[in-house]
């Protein structure tokens, strides 16, 4: 075992005055394995592209099938007293790579993100070397400027063009959505930060198909799940605007305080886009905050062909977009955008003389509002965080490298491939769409039960087949997740900008091979 | 300008089947500059060590003096339509490095973190290549196992050894502290997640010297600032236990609901450790949740010499520790540890059939409690997040590389160097300690006003001198922050495991040179 081998040359963090040589050595030691990890995915993709048989494609998803006990044993992590040095580092890295799913492989279509790209890796490497903190400008001048400029550029894409528009990064879409609730709550009832939510009975609205982070935000913020009115969707998974209107009126007439509506741009399962324009009009009528959760689908704004889906986004008060999803930026990269960042600051700012050196944050904020400026570069003031990583660089560097055009093509490719898969499913004798096809998700049943079964039995049977296929796919180099649907669970494939039609062909074939075992 | 130069070979994310070659090329293109960044800090440190004069030490902190307008102009970030490719990438990287403070330099003592180390950089590189998500086990088997094992090992260090003890990472100390409040709130009043905090009048207790994230957590969670009772500290900055006891009794007798006490291990400014044992006894007496905010000072647990400061930690219900502070792990790496992770899950779990594939999270949770097991590896269930980065790997890899012994020496060195600086200040004719010296912070005034001034005038004068010195130091290669104190603001130096006595000597000299200009 690793523990017994204590290397003669022991690294010691406090002594080294030659860390650049040590870093150079370590880079040399691990780069080969890391490049090999990417090369394996490249080889698998090339094999699929050339139409070779599944059998010879390297299986980059096999780790997904291993139970934790086995992973733990094979990993052999030893958090030991004594240093294990370079040997320990290299060996653990190699085992870790072998025991991980390979997200660079086109076969990885399991969640709403995929592998990153070379410039993504570089951006993380730069951030690691800079290793600084974006709570205050003084210790991160260039990265803070990059975050401000990238946030503003993104906000402009969505049509948020007010003098105080912009955005800040948050550690994930859930965090962005949560902050939007805090900001909206503060706008509606500024005394809550002081006095708590006691007896306010705040109510927020979001569709039944929206992400769970909205309900979690309500729980965390003291509003409670009961304060979340879940609005039904139409047959295509879009929020019903008449139902929203009725729910707001109902809440009002029962003495409650509606304050926030979330419209989803790209729902988690079906990829549906809520009708933003119509929802914005309802919000205006009732004076409610309009948040747009574009964690997944917001990235369509980069595409001339797809941005119509986001029509009306300029009327939102805040917008979440996760470039770590559709744009292939490394996990995590999420922005909360807004038309007036003074509201972000007003809700999140707190006096902390040891961190923020304005005479008092409260005074500085009042000054900013009075003078109609908001040029703070101490970005922690706009967020629930104190320490913050420079996630904005990861989008900025990709944007510089690929251009907006590059991201446009990347988004378009994901949509095109999903449309191709949709056509395959439609033509397939044993596959049936489970939901209207919208964007980069394709949701379908394999050999679903026909009408002769009663619903409960049919749902059970469909779920069983779906789970069986999902669990069988990694052995063929694919990862596809599933989700609850009208008649039991269905398969949900998520395409990305690297997925090709050939991969869709071979995946459909693999699904049929596995699924066929259920229906013989 | 960059925009006019469109490279002939345009990178395109959707086409490449040879991403390992592209990554290899990009690594080659940027590695030189990145290593140079580290080498500059190495050279500065070596120069200080050898006692050479300040003048020839490279100035790695100069960027801190530049206003945003200048940084923005010199950075020349162009988020363009067209790709700028490799040239754009390399040029932006070089400018970014030049316009950033160099946290690898010993002169960087501004905040509670410092530069990372070579293995830290490697750990971020590995995470970037793996680019996966730790919300569910299926897509991150090995990294989830590493998080569980590292969390458990850390919890054990603190004496949290129950069958369900362990820990999870959170995106920063503020997030860890916030989650602790949510978990404690849920234990005290499990119906709040459903019904909101309406009229509960929850009260939490923390010292006046604690981090602002505690008050922010109260605001966010709907408890409100008024629900935070700030307990006075003794002359050394430690929470007064009699005052805590009295505050709890007062709250109770006015019909409020005390539920949570935060004890700080290493306060932000003075580095004081609250008396954990005594606070734990009070918590037990009144049935309150005991959280230990060891964001900064929790790392002392790695040191045989220093761990006495954390005596009683095994009686805490939850503990925050940020290895990205005292241990030099890359920003961000924060753990929330607990003696019973079932409580974490119970407070944060939410049904989401599209993500968690147990029949229902609620049922699975009840099963877990009934069967006295909690072996979920779907770690998002224990946190407010959905998507999560594998921050635990960064500590695990450093631990493997350096051993616990390596971290011990690193912590000891930081404490020793701070003690050395303390002795320099004590001996210096124009310097005066502003607070009792505890751990890795040294807080002092330069030439503070004598008693002849009235307090307000003295405070103004001290603050002016302090700010003048803090702003003058970057030009001499040092960054030192300041904080509010008894008679105006004082300088706060934070040492880390790489800081040497020679650097303290030259910093004291530099402070005297700048400060002297104020008092001539």
UniProtKB/TrEMBL annotation, chains A, B:
GO terms for molecular function: carboxy-lyase activity; pyridoxal phosphate binding. GO terms for biological process: carboxylic acid metabolic process. It comes from the Eukaryota. The modification N6-(pyridoxal phosphate)lysine is found at residue 325. SUPFAM superfamilies: PLP-dependent transferases. Its cofactor is pyridoxal 5'-phosphate. Pfam families: Pyridoxal_deC (PF00282). InterPro entries: PyrdxlP-dep_de-COase, PyrdxlP-dep_Trfase, PyrdxlP-dep_Trfase_major. GO terms for cellular component: cytoplasm. Keywords: Decarboxylase, Lyase, Pyridoxal phosphate. Belongs to the group II decarboxylase family. This is Putative glutamate decarboxylase. It comes from Periconia macrospinosa. The lineage of its organism: Eukaryota, Fungi, Dikarya, Ascomycota, Pezizomycotina.
